[in-house]
Amino acid sequence: MRSRSTTTKLIATALATSALALGATAPVAAAACPGANVVAEDASTPQMESATLCLMNKQRTKRGLDPLRPQKQLRKASLVHTLDMITELLFSHDGSNGTDVTERIRKAGYLKGTSRWWVGENIAYGYGETSKPAEIVKMLMKSPGHRHNILDETFEDVGVTVEYGTPEKQYRNEGATYTTDFGARRK
């Protein structure tokens, strides 16, 4: 198991984030995840969030891992960060006010009463065809740090947020931005 300091180092090193070069790619087979291959403009945000979680859990279960459970405090933290990135035209694990994922998750109440905990975060965005949940998850699975978070057997809980708009000025009012906050905690 990782300690808090190791987890912080993991976030700082393994999650060096880029825009994931969201170019055209072939659709991910996602028949069992409704909405997985629908572009942002044609889907509701709850539909895209549900499809994203479904796709990540498909990746986990086909490798013998337990599925991630939706958790409202992690979702609150991911929502705050997603809206901040879109509003401030910022694509980073650090918020516009300097907060990191651990601070946002703590503020949302997820770490209250715990003695040991693990957290991680994936961020991505796309527009047009690359805004589909299937395309986002496919790109995340190609990135070692993001793939690690999705497949980390320590993580049990997840908060997935997808909001319309991107942190890229020219596509500010197009596409979708995704934040996924992962966690596990022990008393």
Explain how this protein is built.
- With 187 residues, the protein is an alpha+beta fold.
- The chain has 6 helices and 4 strands, in the order H-H-E-H-H-E-H-H-E-E.
- The protein has a 4-stranded mixed sheet, with helices on both faces.
- The chain is globular.
- 44% of the residues are buried.
- The N terminus is likely disordered.
Layout of helices and strands:
Blueprint: H1 4-14, H2 45-61, E1 69-70, H3 72-88, H4 101-107, E2 116-126, H5 133-142, H6 144-151, E3 157-164, E4 176-186
Parallel strand pairs: 1-3
Antiparallel strand pairs: 2-4, 3-4
Helix pairs in contact: 2-5, 3-4
Helix tally equals 6
- The outline comes out as globular
Mean pLDDT: 86
What is the rounded distance between the termini?
15 Å
Q: In terms of per-residue confidence, which ranges show pLDDT below 50 for 5 or more consecutive residues?
A: 1-29
Largest sheet: 4 strands, mixed
Tell me the total number of β-strands: 4
Strand order of the largest sheet: 1-3-4-2
What would you report as the Rg, rounded to the nearest angstrom? 15 Å
What pattern of helices and strands is seen along the backbone? HHEHHEHHEE
Helix content: 25-40%
What structural class do helix, strand and pairing data support? alpha+beta
**Beta-strand proportion:** 15-25%
